[in-house]
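User: Second chain of the day. Same drill as before.
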Amino acid sequence: MNYIELIGYFGALTIGVVIGLFGGGGSILAVPVFVYLFHLNPILATSYSLFVVGCSAAVGTLINIKKKLIEFQTVLVFTIPALSSVSLTRRYLITNLPDVVFESDLVLITKEIALMLIFSLVIIVSALSMLKKNRLRTTKNIKIINYNSLIAIGLGVGLLTGLVGAGGGFVIVPALVLFAALDIKQAVATSLIIITFNALFGFLADVTQVAIDWLFLIIFTSISVVGILIGSYVSNFTHEKSLKKNFARFMLLMALLIIYNEVT
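Assistant: Same format as last time:
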């Protein structure tokens, strides 16, 4: 094991700590770690990210089931279209993307570069949403569920998860608050089980499409789970708002570095 791989496994621990601290955001780190430290193809990296994110979200889901914070009816409405979308994206869209997406005399964008650029845009949107003050509120007296909006957003989240291996929590949580009339705690808890199904279902769609190094993936994921336990413990002694702002700034910097690396 060289020092780059050692840093990569430390990255696995960091991914878990981030999830433990914030309840999400692991995929934001997972894909760059797989691509730039373990030198995996971006398509395989997104597949591995789905497994890591899915297993990590499952750990959080088990905790939330005990706390009775999950709205299972909402999970069903949101997850069915999302699962369909993520499965179709992984099986057909990703595999049928042309090797060269765009070519001119000055610019050559391959499938791998395009995926990393889309991923960097997802990071930017996620970071900006973390930097904004949380103004989401629900009306306690009126509980109106907008099923059409939940289904439409579920399809979009599935597409996002399938394309870049991201859980999409920064989209799911506001959607559940605005269109399912959940409070923030319920929305975060419910989003984790949705992310669990989306990510693991997307990974299963890849099992027959790509060669999986199971030993490496299980070791990486196990280290991330240890990080989740550490992050969950540390979160009891930290100020979450300041941590989120600093992490969001780090995400913006990382997105710019990814864009610079891919463009140059």
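The CA atoms of residues 144 and 181 lie 6 Å apart.

User: Great, on to the next one.
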